[in-house]
Target: DNA polymerase III delta subunit-like C-terminal domain-containing protein
Amino acid sequence: MFVFYGLDNFLLNQTVNIYLKMNHLTDQPNQDVHENDAVVSYYLEPEYFQLTMEKILNEVSSLDLFNNKKIIIINDYYLTLNSDLALVEKFITKLQQFKNDNLVIIKMLTKKLNPQFFKAKIESIFVESYNKEQLKKWIINKNLEYKIKFAENALDAVVTMFPNSLSIIDNELKQLQQLNQSIDVERIRKLSSKYFAFNPYQLINLWLHKDYVTFWFHYHSYWEKIKYDKLNLFLIATYQLELIRNIKLLLQDGCSEYEIGVKLNISMLQIKSLLKCQLEIKEINQLLVKAHEFDFKVKSGKLAKNLAIDIFFCKI
Model:
């Protein structure tokens, strides 16, 4: 079991990806961790904490029974485990009862880790990041060497738009130096987008998996790229919700995944990916009702389209 913790979500995810790939724990070196069938992700929320804990323990228990090996990633963005000593001890004790070779990774956005993790002798990895003032000072000092001419607000854009990584920023500064011209905010925006750009399906997948921190970062930070395409995001979200509901209903009726694929005309890969979403049928139905309500309000002129879509994504 490992705990990865730090203040920057991008670096946290990147570090976990690198760790798994370096240790040959993913099938394909260029594949994202969350797209791998060996990876099961959970997102702890205070409201559904007990239910999620049971799901995780059941997952580990079944893997122990059949001697299957999985990578279980627990995203604790609300720091539920970090704030409750009793919960930490209880959870860790239960996980350690199982003898299989599953790898359990807990990710937390915090700088201070609960001492209980250290007492339990769980390996912890701190992912260092820098605040904006530190980054800006570091970039200014670096630029004494590179002598890049930054237009108004462009230097601040480097601080806010690039990942919180000195090596990444240093590489980008070297590329900017070679241009030998004044660098404006728009150029920084274009360069930084490669680190965060998601296609609509990937963006919605973050939302469906309740990775709200990453979802809202991309949704807000790069809204210029999707502001004319918000309706497409909304339609993809409702379509994916309906697919998940139909898959779950067919499973309840005793259909195999192969039969579901034939009935819904979707691949086995899609089925496995969608089943990773921690959404119950009741929760999906509530979201689809909300979607129809917003659609009606937009069409009747009671609510602006983009505002309605923003509110819908806040409702989950």
About this structure: The chain has 17 helices and five strands. The chain has three domains: 2-127, 132-196, 201-314. The beta strands are 2-6, 39-43, 71-75, 103-109, 123-127. Residues 239 and 288 are 10 Å apart (CA to CA).
